[in-house]
Amino acid sequence: MFFSNRNTLCLVLLLVFQNCASMAFAAPASLFEMGIAVKDVTPPVNYRMSGYFHERLSTGTDNPLQAKALVLRQGQETIALVFCDLVGISPDVSQQARKQIEKELGIPAQQVMIAATHSHTGPLYFGALRKQFHDQAVAKHGNDPYEKFDYPQFLVGQIVHAVKAAQQNLQPTTVRHGTGSETRLSFNRRFHMTVGPVRFNPGYQNPNVVRVAGPIDPEIGMLMFHPENDTKWQHPTVGLSVFALHLDTVGGTQYAADYPFHLENKLRQKLGKDFVSLFGAGTCGDINHVDTTSKERRKADQIGSMLGDSILAAEPKLQPVKNLRLESASSIVKVPVQKYDQKQIDQAKIDILRVGDRAVPFLERVETYKIMALQLRDSDSIELETQVFRLSDDIAIVGLPGEIFVDLGLAIKAASPFKTTLVVELCNDAPGYLPTRKAFVEGSYETVNSRIASGGAEVLIKESIRLLKSLKSSHP
Ligand SMILES: [Zn+2]
User: Fold this and answer.
1) Tens of pLDDT along the chain (476 residues)?
2) Cα of 455 to ligand 1 centre, how many Å?
3) Ligand 1 centroid to 209 CA: how many Å?
């Protein structure tokens, strides 16, 4: 007898891929190669910008937006990790780019991870807000004067070009790994209050704050790639660092890659002008740079510089990897979305006309936007993909979609059988916030903005841990 219980979270495991270069052979691992390439993805001026709930047009470029592709190859196994200076990766762009990379470059789509750094000073090129502003412009002008350029197609092309160029310059590489620590820059932004529910960013020395509602993650996950002949580990050419701190430190109407741009400049002062710094957003759904005990807000250049100091302090202590062995696994879990009835949906269709109106209370605009975002997906469930890349017995990289609460990233790292586990959020899709069950009980901005039902994020995290363990145990 089968009873369906709507309150029970249903998990459907759709696809599981596992590949490894040398699983079938006991022979020592073969040559390990790395290629890197960087392509510009800055849109034209006067395109809409992302990051906030009102319409904002770009007026120039402070520093370029880039797609940085890292390709790793060992034997038959190739993976590509692409880091883009964007608020998110739309599922359409990611699917199209990954398909094209598989077809043209022979790298299986599930071994391609396309991550967004979460810059809030890039283009608004997808989603319910973009659709609303676009539809309004078309109704008013007959066309959209701010989208004369097909940015999504351009972005797909640049991502594919970046991976192709990286694949063409593959060179034998060695790797060092480890972690740094940075405790000065990141703050959990959710607080328990004397009155009412949990609040995010309650303001400078708010007297009603009782205590902070969650932790931060001070760990900086680090990988450094060296040319094979750099036997003294003095000249890394590429570094990947992952840190859990929201990118929203610039504002304004100039395109900017936010603090990772300044981080790269800082690292180049020490490691050379050609050093490429890849930055992965850690699980920072509830973490930002706002210190509620201070009136001062750190700027992007200060944050990049300070994070760079912490990376450079940790760099000499990184451990060389002895046996590189590239493997990957991925899977998709299907989790339920939040439910709204027809009356609420009809109301949201009216309210969305005022989504950019700052006179309407903020959380009401956010909820309207979220209901409309759910209509775009038009499904009772949402597919969440997890990718795990194993570089050696000691190193794994996990790629997850959405903006993930810090507790969840900490849980993956605590359970991971690898010494260094880098957990990167906002990969391949942008399904909004993925809060913890605890946060859904507490409420506030992130849960109002989230699309998944409570419990979905924990399912994804459990699956990531399962994949990490399976990749570890394939070579005990
Ligand atoms: Zn965010």
Assistant:
1) 333 333 334 454 555 666 644 444 444 568 999 999 999 999 999 999 998 888 999 999 999 999 999 999 999 999 999 999 999 999 999 999 999 999 999 999 999 999 999 999 999 999 999 999 999 999 999 999 999 999 999 999 999 999 999 999 999 999 999 999 999 999 999 999 998 889 999 999 999 999 999 999 999 999 999 999 999 999 999 999 999 999 999 999 999 999 999 999 999 999 999 999 999 999 999 999 999 999 999 999 999 999 999 999 999 999 999 899 999 999 999 999 999 999 999 999 999 888 888 899 989 999 998 999 999 888 899 999 999 999 999 999 999 999 999 999 999 999 999 999 999 999 999 999 999 999 999 999 999 999 999 999 999 999 999 999 999 976 65
2) 20
3) 22
Report CA(400)–ligand 1 centroid distance (Å). 14
Between the CA of 332 and the centroid of ligand 1 the distance, in Å, is: 23
Rounded distance, CA 197 to CA 472, Å? 42
Question: How far does the centroid of ligand 1 lie from the alpha carbon of residue 219, in Å?
Answer: 20
C-alpha angle 369-373-375 in degrees, rounded to nearest 5:
120
Task: Tell me how far the alpha carbon of residue 124 lies from the centroid of ligand 1, in angstroms.
Answer: 13
The Å distance, Cα 469 to ligand 1 centre, comes to 29
Residue closest to 247 by CA, chosen among 51, 383, 110, 60: 51
Calpha distance 457→440 (Å, rounded): 11
Give the other-Cβ count within 10 Å of 103's Cβ.
11
Q: What is the pTM of this model?
A: 0.94
Ion ligand 1 neighbours (CB, 5 A) are 403
Q: How far is the CA of 393 from the centre of ligand 1 (A)?
A: 33
| Mode of pairing for the β-strands spanning 420-424 and 12-20 | unpaired
Of 124, 26, 191, 102, the residue nearest 430 (C-alpha): 124
**DSSP designation for 93:** H
Domain boundaries, the chain: 12-339+380-473
Report how far ligand 1's centroid is from the alpha carbon of 183 (Å): 20
User: How many Cα atoms occupy the beta-carbon half-sphere of 30 within 13 Å?
Assistant: 13
CA of 180 to the centre of ligand 1 (A): 24
Q: Ligand 1 center to residue 394 CA distance, Å?
A: 30
Question: How far away, in angstroms, is 109 Cα from ligand 1 center?
Answer: 26
CA of 404 to the centre of ligand 1 (A): 9
